[in-house]
Structure formats: C-alpha cells, structure tokens
Amino acid sequence: MYKLIGILCILAGCVGWGSARVGQEKDRVRNLRALFHILGQMRSEISYGKHTLPEICLLLAELNDKCYKACFVRVYERTREENGGDFPEVWEEEMRACLAGLPLREDERETVAGLPKTLSFQEEGGQSGRIGQAEEFLEGRYRQAEETYENRAKMIRSISILTGLLLAILLL
Amino acid sequence: MRPEEVLCLFPEGVRDRWREVAKHAERLQEIRLRAGMPLAVWMENREHFVDAQGRIVDRPEKAARVTPEELEELLKYLCRYSVYAFADEIRQGFLTLQGGHRVGLAGQVILDGDGRIKNMKYIRYLNIRIAHQVRGAADPVIPYIFEKGHVLNTLLISPPGGGKTTMLRDIIRQVSEGTVYGGGVNVSVVDERSEIAGSYLGVSQNDLGIRTDVLDGCPKVEGMMLLIRSMAPQVLAVDELGSIGDVQALQLASGCGCRLLATVHGCSLEEIRHKNYMRYVIEEELFERYVTIDRKTGTCRVTGVYDREGKPCIS
Q1: Mean pLDDT of A2-7
Q2: Do the strands B154-158 and B117-129 form a parallel or antiparallel pair, or are they unpaired?
Q3: B19: closest CA among B37, B33, B5, B32?
C-alpha cells in the first residue's frame, strides 16, 4: 500500500514538473507575442501617430496588461518634463526589471531593453525601421517558439512521465 | 513663471547647473546656446553669461562653453527623444515647448528638389525664448477697438520683438472674455507658428479666453477658411501678415462677416502703406483701427492708434 502511494507521489511530482515546464514554454510564446506586438504598436505610432516616445509609452500602457502596463507608466512618468529622465536609460532600466522574471532568452531581453540606445533620434524612417528590425527578430522567435511548442510540450510531458516511472521502478 | 518651469527645459543630468539661473525665472527672457561659444542668458534686456558652476557672470571669458554634444542632448530632450514628431516645426526653425516657451533653431539646412527646406541637421544654435504672458498689455487699446459693443477690424503694427504678439494675445483674451466695452464673443485663432497660443500637444499654454478656438501650426490662408467653415467665429485673429495671399484670405474672411485682428511687421502706418501687399487693403479701408507699438524702453508701449483713414485717435 505504502509502495503504491509512493509510486503515485513520484509520478505526480514528475508530471507536475513536466506541466510547469510546459507552462513556462507557453508563457514564453505568450510573452514573445506580446513583445513583438508592442514593438509593432510603437512602430505604427511613430509612423502614423507622430507621437513622441514617452507619449507612446502612455498609449502602450493603455493597450497592454500585466507587468508591461506598470512598466510603461513608470517610463512615461520618469521621462516627463517634471522629472527629466533620459529616455534610453529609463527605458532600459525599467524594461530589464520588467523582463527579468519572464521566460525569455538573454538576446530577446537585450533586443527590447537596449532598443532606444540603437534608435536614431533624428529621423522617423530610421526609428521605425530600427524598431521594425527588432520586431522581425522577435516575430521570428515567436513563430519558432510557437511551432516547436506542441512538440516540445509533448516531449516534456512524455519525459516527465517516463522519468516518474523510471524513478518508481528504481526505488521499488 | 516658476523656477521649476525653467528646470523642466533641461534634462535631469544638467539641472543642477541651471538652478541658479532658474531663481531669476521671472526676469529671464532668453537662453542662448551656441556650439563652442559662451553660454548666455538675457534678463531684463541685458545679456549675462553662465559659468561652469551655473553662476551668472557678466564677462563672456568666465562663461562655460557649450559643446555640440550638449546641444544634441538638449535637442533630443526638448524633442522628447522623437525629433520626427517635431519635423514640421524644425523645418520652420522653432520648437514650441510646454508652457508656450519657444526654441529657435539654426544649423545646416537640407533642401528638397524644389529648393524648399526639407529638414535641418547639425543644429548648433539654440535660442530658448521664455514665454511671459502679459495680462493687461492690451488695456490701453481696448477702448479704441470696440465700437457700439462690436470689435473693429484692427491691425497691430510693430517692428520684430516690439510686442505685437503679446498685445494680440491679450486683445484676444479680453475680446473672448468680454470687457466693459463689449461682451465676450467667439474668437478663432490661426496660430501658424504657435506664437500666440504656444500650444503644446494641442493645448494652448497661454490664456486666450474662454471662447477662443486655436488652429495650431496651420498656414494662415488655409487656416482662416477652415475656421470660418468649421468654427463660425465672430472674430478671427492671425499673426504676422506677410504675403498677398494672407491679405486676400483676410478680405474673404471679412466678407464672411468676421471681425479681424491681425499684426504686421513695421515701424509706422506710413511704412505699412508702402508694402505692396498691404497697400490695397489700407486703401480699401479693410481695417478700422491701426495700433502702432514699440519696445524702446524695454516694455511694450502703444505709440499710436489710428482710424480707418489713418487719422490718430490718440497720440
């Protein structure tokens, strides 16, 4: 009886670990999609809305939820005339803090957090073009992550169940 | 103007240097930054300089020199890191900031195929002009621009920097709010260079009265017709008439029943009569009042008010 309970506990633990890993993968896909949509919104606001970057942050705060909203509001507040913050520095600091806990790769975080430093502040075409490049990069990563997500999820679930069974057999 | 408003003109990293200057916010007129040249400020029509510690000094040798990098940083900050959003203004050589302050720009001009200004690069000269709305500036002329409760078509004449925009702004405010000489009426303003309202993000930074609509950044000719069609103004105000097109648009507006308030560069009514594009409207008596203004003593002063025939109402 105890052995059976032990086997079930081991199996449940392994399946739980597998589900957590699958959840992380799903979260990564969701965040990549959110980020490339954010860059798309920024690009269109620059090209068509002619809003300034701090104003765009305020618009992005209205259009996005979760941690992004709070992050964009902070960027806007810190770069207002009253506070006079340097936009590239403030953006990088806030974005790094915002993206730190998310299941993203370092180069993906860097692409978003370091974006304003690479923008040419002189010209609309240059700015929207550079954002477009970052958007393409993240979209590529998103498509890749989405395509592999199903297979990876199946693989992780199978591995977790097999690991559970193997552990149970070894411990019997 | 409060000292904090002066500090808001500069990025956080350099605000300490401007704290001393900001203490004189009420007297501050201009901040002039030229690449490689001493940092200068104008207060009460006198030039002063600012040293590296932010202290105000009188000799240019003691002043801090402005670097091109500092100018670039400041320009990025003033444009909110989005120069593209101010491209139209930069093309005209100025930026309007929150509070109605204006930044004059000079550098290397880029022309398009037709020889028109397309953009500006290597901006190495900035002139930050601090806005001070002078309430009551129009008090001496208000009794003369109303007749039987109605506003008369009025042309303000002064040399550049003579105070005609300050005067026009206060006339608009008083006409819009209403005075003892006439009730408040709907006023529409075509603010081609954002000098009258000093609009920032579409909101007038100067008080132009409760019945005033502002069309910001629009050429006068198109703007006047647009406002007549859309806002049904009783009074239409424009700054700096400078072409035959502007004058023809004014005539059209007058034909639509609008009363007119306008300004033009000049030292006297006689000088205006000799401008090709003004001669006709003066002969046609489009304007019923001419007000000449100067700033010889440092403050805006009305030097004469004339009727439609050019006869002085006051001297």
Answers
A1: 84
A2: unpaired
A3: B5
The two beta strands, B312-314 and B301-307, are antiparallel
Q: Write out residues 213-272 of B within 8 Å (CB-CB) of A.
A: none
Please report, as a single letter, which amino acid is at residue B267.
C
Q: pTM here? A: 0.75
> What is the least distance, in Å, from the CA of B116 to any CA of chain A?
18
**Whether A111 contacts A134, CB under 8 Å:** yes
3-class secondary structure, B234 = coil
Residue B92 has pLDDT above 80, yes or no: yes
Token match 């993203």: residue? Answer: A104
Asked whether the beta carbons of residue A123 and residue B83 sit closer than 8 angstroms, the reply is yes
Q: Which of A46, A54, A85 sits opposite B84 (nearest CB)?
A: A46
Q: Which residue of A has its CA nearest to B85?
A: A50
**What is the C-alpha separation between B132 and B202, in angstroms, rounded?**
19
Q: In which element (H, E) is residue B315 found? A: none
Among B69, B70, B81, the strongest candidate for a mutation testing the A interface, having the largest count of A CBs within 10 A, is B81
In order of their start, the domains of chain B are 3-129 (3.30.450), 142-314 (3.40.50.300)
Residues contacting A65, CB < 8 A, separation 6+? none
d(CA B79, CA B73): 10
Cβ within 8 Å, pair A53-B80 = yes
- Closest CB from A55, A84, A122 relative to B12: A84
The interface predicted TM-score of the complex, written ipTM, equals 0.75
* Integer CA distances (angstroms), B155 to A101, B93, B169, B178, in order: 65, 26, 13, 19
- Own/partner contacts of A6-9, CB < 8 Å, gap of 24 or more, are A6/A168, A6/A171, A7/A168, A7/A172
pLDDT at B230 over 90: yes
CA proximity to B191, closest of B230, B217, B157, B169: B217
CB B182 within 8 A of CB B149: yes
What residue has token string 């629009």? B218
Q: What is the pLDDT of residue A67?
A: 80
Cα dihedral A46, A50, A52, A57 sign: negative
| Structure tokens given for B128 | 């930050």
* pLDDT digits 0-9 by tens, B132-180: 788 888 999 999 999 999 999 999 999 887 888 889 999 999 999 999 9
Helix (H, G, I), strand (E, B) or coil at A101: coil
